[in-house]
Design brief:
heterodimer, A: mainly alpha, 4 helices, about 55% helix, B: alpha/beta, Peroxisomal Thiolase, Chain A, domain 1, 2 domains, twelve-stranded mixed beta sheet
Amino acid sequence: MDDFKKDLKLQIIEALNLQGMNPDDIDNTAPLFGEGLGLDSIDSLELMVLLERNYGIKIEDAREGRKVLESIDAMAAYIQANRKK
Amino acid sequence: MAETTPAFYLVNMFNPVYITSARAICAQDTFSNNNLPEETKAFEQNILNYHEPDYKKYFTIMQLRRMTRIIKIGLVTAIEALKDAKLEQPQAIITGTAKGSMTDTEKFLHDIVDFNEGTLNPTAFIQSTYNALNGLIALHHNANGYNSTYVHRGFSLENALMDAIMLFEENRIENALIGCFEEMTAEHYELKKKMGYWKNESMKNIDLLNSPTTGTIAGEGTFFFTLNKSAENAIAKLNGLRMLYNVDEALIKTTFKSFLAEHNLTLDEVDTVFLSYNGNSQTRHFEDAISQQLSPSTNQLAFKHLCGEFDTAAGFALWAGAKILQHQTIHPSLILKKGTSSSLKNVVIYNQYNGKEHAFYLLEKI
């Protein structure tokens, strides 16, 4: 699971062009939006695209999306349980 | 294919508008000192790419990560133009661009194909829209006034200026930020090469103006100007603008004379003329039609060997013309034919793009 989270962080860094950042800079439990990593609403759309392209996961419900994208831990758990590829 | 009907547009006499700042980023280092560098850069390839500034002085990493090249360049140019004019919130932001962010447009279009019209990245889509830069400038400066972008190929800058001039005439604004921006990508270069825009042979930019072959060299440029209704702190005055579409050289010749006459100028009184020679043997006759009429006293200048060709390259001449009038000196790299007159009271710009879109500008000293 740790390797998977590290890979996921690398994918996020690339997708969101988080220049100069490496996986260790992102806390697994910290919020991705707001006071944590400081991502915004456009980033949430970029992460939805990442989930669909890389794991075949399509999130239709915005409330569900908020929970899935809460932190790296939440994202990793959701992907492991719902991935189609 | 039916031939396009020749037509021309006129901008009739208008009250002068005053340029209070002018900024440029292009293939030459025009940004560091807001002038042409002592030694201009020589190129040996047919694309003259941007000399980019240090963006970290302007934006945090979190802000930079979403901006592509032309967005960063445009925003930095606009920021400095406003800073020079000591203007925090322009009453209008008006730009012209033929292609906008080509990088984002290409990424978005490729994604549509690669992902079979499925879920697409929002960032490339947002920034591929022509008015993305205008929106960012407005957000950055908290300016919620008039905001418009003109996408009119070789007339994009001229239409942006015309819009501002009309807003001034109607007393709707006192100041405005006007600009144009263009970038060239490798893919867009190849597409235009197939259409015959560029030279087939590799060309040194300093040899461009004497080239006997067809086509030209590609360039990039972003230029921003602040305009004001009053002359206070102005560096130059824009006193005339005329556009002509799809006309022959005979009409270019007569329009040039009538354009001067409308501003009470004779050929002998024209101090400096920018000519849009770009090394293309097929369109050179347009610039020749102007050049051959000019008096020996007039300085004849060229500029596309320094910045390359692009739809809004007239922005370079407008920037350089304003700098000439501000500093009362002409950079040697611009001189095609030195005139005998030492006066630098007026600058006429003649620009043609691809032999179709022609524009005359008249700038005057304050």
